[in-house]
Amino acid sequence: MAQELSEKELLRMEVEQLKKEVRNPRTPISKTGKEIKDYVEAQAGNDPLLKGISEDKNPFKDKGTCIIS
Fold first, then answer.
1. Sequence-separated (6 or more) residues with CB below 8 Å from residue 50
2. Cα separation, 62 vs 49, whole angstroms
3. 10-56 tens-digit pLDDT
C-alpha cells in the first residue's frame, strides 16, 4: 500500500497522525509513576507470581503419583 502512495500523501498522513497524537492529554511521569506504584502495591496480594498458587487451584500440580512396577 505504501508503494502506491506518493511521498506527498505519505507526509500528509504522517502530519495527520502527529496532529492526533499532540491532542492526547499528557501527564507528568512523576504523577503517573506514583499512581502505577500505588496500584502495583495494592494488587500485590493477588499476584500469583509473588504469592504463589494454592496447591488445590494449581492446574499444573500432579494429581496423583505414578507407580511403576
1. 44
2. 19
3. 999 999 999 999 999 999 999 999 999 999 999 998 888 888 877 77
Torsion angle in degrees (nearest 10) through CA of 33, 40, 60, 64: 160
- Within 1-69, strands assigned E span none
CB 44 within 8 A of CB 50: yes
Q: What is the pTM of this model?
A: 0.45
The answer to whether 61 and 55 have CB atoms below 8 angstroms apart is: yes
Q: How far is CA 17 from CA 20, 21, 22, 23, in A?
A: 5, 6, 9, 10
